[in-house]
Amino acid sequence: MGGDAGLDEVSFSEQEIEEFKKFSKRSDVQDILVDSLAPSIWECNDVKKGILCQLFGGVSKEFSQSGRGRFRGEINILLCGDPSTAKSQLL
């Protein structure tokens, strides 16, 4: 996994892999993940979906053959809103 601190050796049991596969086939997987992210914060489902997209992120892009260098694959988000609307707690 190269450069990721502490993630050089990640392994899952066969049972865990089967559970992941079974979970991924559920039609409500996105709703479950949204409800699992900061469950004490109500509503904000669109914000939670955006944060989940960032957590699962993209992949690093290399354009070394074309001479353009390396590009970051992660998305960026900016949370704007009224004070006391749980922006910091979500992040």
Report on the architecture of this protein:
This protein has 91 residues and is mostly helical. It has one domain (14-90). Helices cover 38% and strands 7% of the residues. The protein is built from four helices and two strands, in the order H-H-H-E-E-H. It has helices spanning 14-24, 29-36, 45-56, 87-90; strands at 61-63, 69-71. It has a two-stranded antiparallel sheet with strand order 1-2. Helix 2 crosses helix 3 (45-56). The longest helix has 12 residues, at 45-56. It is flat and about 45 Å long. The two termini are 25 Å apart. 2% of the residues are buried. The model has no long low-confidence stretch (mean pLDDT 82).
Total helical segments: 4
Helix content: 25-40%
Query: What kind of assembly state do the chains in view correspond to?
Result: single chain
Indicate the low-confidence ranges by residue numbers: none
- Number of DSSP-assigned strands: 2
Shape: flat
Distance separating the two termini:
25 Å
Strand content range = 5-15%
Structural class: mainly alpha
Which H/E pattern describes the elements? HHHEEH
Tell me the number of structural domains.
1
Write down the Rg. Answer: 17 Å
- Spatial sequence of strands, sheet with the most strands: 1-2
Q: Biggest sheet: strands, sense, closure? A: 2 strands, antiparallel
- Average predicted local confidence, pLDDT: 82
